[in-house]
Amino acid sequence: MAVTFLSEEWAQAVTDALNAHEGFKNSMGDADLSIQFVTTDTPAGGETPYYLAATGGNAAVTLGTAEGPDATVTQTYETATAISSGELNTQTAFMTGKLKVTGNLAKLMMHQNAIQQWGSAVSDIQVDY
Predict the structure, then answer these.
(1) How many other CB atoms are found less than 10 A from the CB of residue 97?
(2) Average pLDDT for residues 66-88, to the nearest whole number?
(3) Full-model pTM
(4) Which residues contact 97 (CB under 8 A, 6 or more apart)?
(5) Mode of pairing for the β-strands spanning 3-4 and 127-128
(6) Cα–Cα nearest to 27, from 15, 19, 38
(7) Are 49 and 37 in contact (CB under 8 A)?
(8) What is the rounded distance in angstroms from the CA atom of residue 80 to the CA atom of residue 109?
(9) How many CB atoms lie within 10 A of CB 115?
(10) What residue ranges define each of the domains in the chain, with the CATH number in brackets?
(11) Closest CA to 36 of 62, 13, 59
(12) Sequence-distant (≥ 6) Cβ neighbours of residue 34 within 8 angstroms
């Protein structure tokens, strides 16, 4: 059954997939990391914020705004769906200016492998865009 992108069901499906994926869990380890994502130009208009909070070997993706995130990633809906569907690589999106990152870039780069594992972890989730 497909989940709607940026919905509560999507966030729960991503959380479950990340916590079940050995590559993501091994890459993240026991690190504490909080990444705020802001998706602009959504079909409903405006923006949709969500965040990843990883601590103690567990990850959670939650709609809303994190308190004091380590980094914030801002992207358009078009970019977010392309990354989510595997049509666009996160690094390529960053290098071409399709997503903006602010905050503690050093900490984000320390967990680059886990971020790359994210795509593999969620690849089996059927998403309606």
Answers:
(1) 8
(2) 95
(3) 0.93
(4) none
(5) parallel
(6) 19
(7) yes
(8) 20
(9) 19
(10) 3-117 (3.30.1050.10)
(11) 62
(12) 51, 52, 53, 54, 66, 68, 69, 70, 71
Cα 98 from chain centroid (whole Å): 15
d(CA 121, CA 63): 19
Q: Are 93 and 115 in contact (CB under 8 A)?
A: no
d(CA 19, CA 57): 8
For residue range 10-66, what is the model confidence (pLDDT) as tens digits?
A: 999 999 999 999 999 999 988 899 999 999 999 988 999 999 999 988 999 999 999
What's the rounded Cα separation, in Å, for the pair 25 and 18? 7
Yes or no: say if 77 and 37 are a contact pair by the CB < 8 Å rule. no
Long-range contact set of residues 46-53: C-beta below 8 Å, sequence gap at least 24: 48/6, 50/6, 50/11, 52/18
Number of other residues whose CB lies within 10 A of the CB of residue 112: 12
Q: Tokens 């914020």 label which residue?
A: 49
How far is it, in rounded angstroms, from Cα 21 to Cα 44?
32
How many whole angstroms from its chain centre is CA 58? 14
Look up residue 11 and give its two tokens: 């966030």
